[in-house]
Amino acid sequence: MVPLQFGVPGGPELLILFLVFGLWFIVPLAISVLIYRDAADRGSGHALAWAVGAFFGSVVVWILYYVVRDEVGP
């Protein structure tokens, strides 16, 4: 006789899905915070705009900020 199996519906698949979506949210959020702090430390009046752009614009805005960050600020 086979014992009853116990498990959560979608067990490992749901874990992988949550990890992928979690990383999809956490990595841009962390980089946005870093960009905001760097722009604020440099005295940029647009630090919040850079952070929002970095969160939604992703890699393109990250590269753009890295290229122009020396020009950001007073």
Measured distance between first and last alpha carbons: 77 Å
Class derived from helix and strand content: mainly alpha
Fraction of residues in β-strands: under 5%
As for the number of domains, it is 1
Number of strands: 0
What does the main sheet amount to? none
Q: What keywords describe this structure?
A:
3 helices, single chain, rod-shaped, mainly alpha
What does this structure look like?
The chain is mostly helical and 74 residues long. It has one domain (15-71). It has helices at 11-41, 47-57, 59-68. The longest helix is centred in the middle third of the chain and has 31 residues, at 11-41. The protein starts with 10 loop residues before the first helix and ends in a 6-residue tail after the last helix.
Layout of strands and helices, then pairs:
Layout lengths: L10 H31 L5 H11 L1 H10 L6
Brief overview:
With 74 residues, this protein is mainly α. The chain is built from 3 helices and no strands.
